[in-house]
Amino acid sequence: MWDKERRNVTITENKSINPLLDKKDYFVLGIESSCDETAASVVRNDSKILSNVISSQFETHRPYGGVVPELAARAHVDKIDLIVEEAMRSAQINYNDLSAIAATGGPGLIGGVLVGTTFGKAMAFANNLPFIAVNHLEGHALTPRLTHHINFPYLLLLASGGHCQLLTVKGVGEYELLGSTIDDAIGEAFDKTAKLLGLGFPGGPALEKTALDGDGKRYNFPKPLAGRPGCDFSFSGLKTAVRYTVDNLPNLTKKNQADLAASFQETVVSILNDRCANAISIFQEKNGSNGIFVAAGGVAANMPIRNGLTSLASDYNMDFIAPPLNLCTDNAAMIAWAGLEKLKIGHCTNLDFAPRPRWSLNEL
Ligand code: KG4
Ligand code: ZN
Questions:
Q1: Among the atoms of ligand 1, which is closest to the Cα of residue 188?
Q2: Quick one: which atom of ligand 1 is closest to the CA of 330?
Q3: Are residues 173 and 52 in the same domain?
Q4: Model confidence over 219-271: pLDDT tens digits?
Q5: Which listed ligand is nearest to 297 at the C-alpha?
Q6: DSSP H or E run through 315
Q7: Whose CA is nearest to atom 7 of ligand 1?
Q8: 274: CA distance to ligand 2 center in Å?
Q9: 10-54 per-position pLDDT tens digit
Q10: Helices (DSSP H) in 92-220: which residue ranges?
Q11: Pick from 147, 171, 142, 167: which is nearest to 156 by CA?
Q12: Counting atoms of ligand 1 from 1, which one is nearest the CA of 328?
């Protein structure tokens, strides 16, 4: 039986440093299940990733051309215990070596988030460990501190399947939103365009691959909001322009597919550089020229985007970094790391935490 008194004794939500942190080395288990990856990872406080296990559901969703929430939730239930067990086994540690268990608490598909948080809470309760609900976006946002040990503040482009935002990351839980998409997320634009071009699922990587053989100058697509002040994005007009072009082609040949993919991607790079240039100016005005420009989230795995942002940053005498490709797309190491960062400042979560399908970084 759940007992509120007992819960409050075992799992605290105070701001004091957890006594377990007197240990020289400490470990956090992270669980990610907010979309179509069931993942678990153990990370040590010196940013060593001891294990990083991911089970992707691509095959489950491929026939539908997109993620089916009900199927995703069932697949998470099927796999979660095995994935966590594998993460613990390959990290070669026991539950009593852990200092906390972190799980994605949102935003995301509610079925999956429920599976991950329920599993994480149960394991935390059973092992008398603190539980930490991590905002998935915060996981992406803090990854560059895991991979490149950078200091606050930094400028972040968060480019994923559900989001496209520019933020100043001032500290753990301290995010200042500079701009955001007013319609489609950037990953959504990649995925929908890939689907339109018949490139399959998942769309982003397929489109990047197809574009390698294409002429990015063949089609002149619109660049919504480009040239305007501010840091907001818009991608839906671009996607619609690709649709009209496809509808007016007699045949969607391999050559057309590749040229359309390359032209779409080149337009996205140009939109991003335009909006990020404004954000860099705003960031540098407030923070001087020392900060770092960072891209994170699944779309930051795209090479032309990484190259475009690298040269933009150098125009402004700024360093640009992006995590390695496998830590841009969804993974649990970022959740374990964000959990670790929160644990260090004593931010644990009560077991009555309710998963949040919507949870913006501003609310942290
Ligand atoms: O961060 P992420 O793994 O999941 C979310 O939090 O949404 O991002 C997934 C998105 C998908 O839309 C996927 O198509 C896109 O990232 N993506 C890419 C690439 N790899 C993943 N988009 C463009 N180029 C890529 N190489
Ligand atoms: Zn993500």
A1: 12
A2: 3
A3: no
A4: 999 999 999 999 999 999 999 999 999 999 999 999 999 999 999 999 999 99
A5: 1
A6: helix 303-315
A7: 161
A8: 23
A9: 334 444 445 555 678 899 999 999 999 999 999 999 999 999 999
A10: 110-126, 136-148, 186-196, 203-211
A11: 167
A12: 1
C-alpha to C-alpha distance for 275 and 280, rounded to whole angstroms: 9
Cβ of residue 202 lying under 6 Å from some atom of ligand 1: yes
Is 217 found in the same domain as 179? yes
Which protein residue has the closest C-alpha to ligand 1 atom 5? Answer: 161
Residue pLDDT, tens place only, 327-358: 999 999 999 999 999 999 999 999 999 999 99
Does the C-beta of 359 come closer than 6 Å to ligand 1?
A: no
Percent of the chain exceeding pLDDT 70 equals: 94
pLDDT > 90: percent of the chain: 90
Ligand 1: atom nearest CA of 191 is: 14
Instruction: Please state, in angstroms and rounded to a whole number, the distance separating the CA atoms of residues 26 and 18.
Output: 11
CATH code of the domain covering residue 16: 3.30.420.40
Q: Which residue is listed with tokens 């026991």?
A: 94
Does 187 sit in the ligand 1 pocket, CB within 6 Å? yes
Instruction: Print the domain residue range for 40.
Output: 4-143+328-363
